[in-house]
Design a protein that fits this description.
about 160 residues; Rossmann fold; 5 strands
Length: about 160
């Protein structure tokens, strides 16, 4: 069975961005393009309405570029269960109040049983310091946390 990957908003953001002069950003952009071009076909990709909302925000030209990478990707519903799980994540204090959408990304991927959550958001999502606590919260809702990783970590053989 094909593994499913939830594409968080930082992925199309890196794909659509103009080449960065910052070495770390440039490396992440290249890794993201390499993964997108060479690995994504090995997975079933999906997003949520939250990804579309975030991708659409900001500069209209940049938004158009971001949205081209999201066309035709299946949408996972932001259900009542997702909202309850996201609220529990926020109520735990693991994430700052400004990171509510990050909690929703985690909740969507978890409630829908997604295998991987792909992101470059290493502050609030792909953060090893909060994984154990997130697992405990999600277990209270009979959900498993997906493997949360960057494109660099999701390359095959």
């Amino acid at each position: 069975m094909t593994k499913r990957v939830y594409i968080e908003t930082t992925i199309p953001s890196y794909l659509a961005a103009w080449p960065s002069r910052d070495l770390l950003q440039a490396a992440r952009q290249q890794i993201t393009h390499d993964w997108w071009n060479n690995e994504r076909a090995n997975y079933e990709l999906c997003i949520s309405e939250i990804v579309l909302d975030e991708a659409f925000a900001g500069d209209s030209d940049a938004a158009k570029r971001r949205l081209t990478f999201l066309v035709d990707l299946p949408l996972l519903d932001v259900t009542d269960a997702v909202n309850v799980v996201a609220k529990a994540i926020m109520d735990s204090g693991l994430l700052p109040q400004k990171a509510t959408r990050d909690a929703i990304h985690i909740a969507v991927a978890s409630v829908h049983g997604i295998d991987f959550l792909l992101t470059w958001n290493c502050r609030h999502i792909a953060n090893a310091a909060i994984m154990k606590e997130l697992q405990t919260i999600l277990a209270n809702f009979d959900c498993e946390i997906p493997t949360i990783c960057t494109p660099e970590e999701l390359f095959g053989e």
